[in-house]
Amino acid sequence: MAKTTLGEYIRNLRNKRDIGVRELGRLVDVSGVHISSIEKNKNTPSPELLRKIAVILDADVDKLQAMANQVDPDVIDVIKKSPSAVPSFLRSAKGLTKAQWEKLEKTAIKMAKKKSKK
């Protein structure tokens, strides 16, 4: 089975919500032609446009960014703060299962909450 492209995924989300190409373009401040070219995988949306599309289509922005090979600016900031620790951490976590990633995420969220309370 072929992997769904970013454009196909956006088109599917748009169709599920019964939003036309021109309407989506209007809602995110671009032309319908531009949306169509994204859906046909002729153009890749900018990070800002991708976030707008995610909001309108009620989509997971992180998933869309991953499909577009983009990194959220917040993630870039984290990497810049710990330029050697973050890549090393990610490499060491490479083989984790989905359940292990979920547990790790919960642990990180708890740690961040404790830090913000201080």
UniProtKB/TrEMBL annotation:
Gene Ontology terms for molecular function: DNA binding
Domain spans labelled HTH cro/C1-type: 10-64
PROSITE patterns tied to this protein: HTH_CROC1 (PS50943)
Entries under InterPro entries matching the protein: Cro/C1-type_HTH, Lambda_DNA-bd_dom_sf
Pfam families assigned to the protein according to its UniProt record, in alphabetical order: HTH_31
This protein's name: HTH cro/C1-type domain-containing protein
Protein species of origin: marine metagenome
Lineage: unclassified sequences, metagenomes, ecological metagenomes
